[in-house]
Sequence to fold (349 residues):
Amino acid sequence: MNINKLYKYSALAVCILFLASCATSLKTVYIEVAKPSEFLLPNDVVSLTLMNRSLTDEFGNYPADSLQNYFYRRAFNVDAAVLDSSASDTTLKVLADLLFESGRYDVVIPEERNIPRSETYYKVLPPLEWDYVTEVCETYQTDALLVLERYTNKIMTDYMKVPYSDFHLASIDSKYDAVVKIYDPSREEILMQLLVGDTIFWEEQDYSQKNLFTNQLVPVKQALIETGIQVALELDAKLAPQWQTQARSYFVLKEADSALLEAAIRENNWGKAYDHWKSILNRTSKASDKSKLEYNLAVASEMIGNLNEAAEWATQSYKTQYRRQTELYLYQLKSRKKTVDEFKKILSD
Fold:
């Protein structure tokens, strides 16, 4: 991804979620803005091949019913590593989707994506040979190779009938640990090694033991798959820009064409809204209206991606007529500019 594309994602309002009318002369739009990540890869790494090196002979793709019966036969009191290959593969597939959807990376996940290994599952192996990494990246025409090097999952289940009660209580703790390495063949360098680990917890209770396990508590196989998804989410949070929802408002004026503006904003065509407000400003003399239009032009400039121009318009609006809202918006712009500068610094390192 070049810097302009990342700037688009970090400096523009890329997604208008909905338009809400206010009781005052303001309308509010909700936008998503990016937050930088310290783990963002170098600017020239725009495509990734994803492969799995975590699977050993100790893994199995366990049928859901057989797995559940294994736990039932032990009175649902189990504390053991459960190495499910479909959960590990789920991490890789979901991570590929998330990285692609972030807009930051192009992603390839090969059909033959499992790298053979004979060592036990909990070891992190020495790095792959660079000839192999280069061959993979050339085959799939990507800049780097992302490898799931280790994937461990320990399941702890508990069941009891609550004393002096008709309640049945059951729980599942899923403790996970995963390691990812990202290999850059052009630099012959491991760009990053990421470790994620935590525990997901489910607990349910019911008067009926049958209903507890049939309709309430998540099945063990599903818990394993959801754990794989959680691992992918945590890795994506480190590697891809993350988004947060923020609100922006604009003033409604009698001279403005509300239908034109709402259509333009709904279509994310802020340039059209900017031109409309600018044409009205050119023939407006009343200070109050001028200040509102200048404020609107600041918002439109920000949405277009010109933060410097947005700051100029907002400052002019502040000078034309003071409003607390304009002052607060200037602080928002300062924060956005800092975010963009952080992205640029990351990309230039």
Summary: The beta strands are 16-21, 26-35, 47-52, 78-81, 106-108, 144-161, 168-184, 189-206, 242-251. The two ends are 15 Å apart (CA to CA). Residues 324-348 form the longest helix (25 residues).
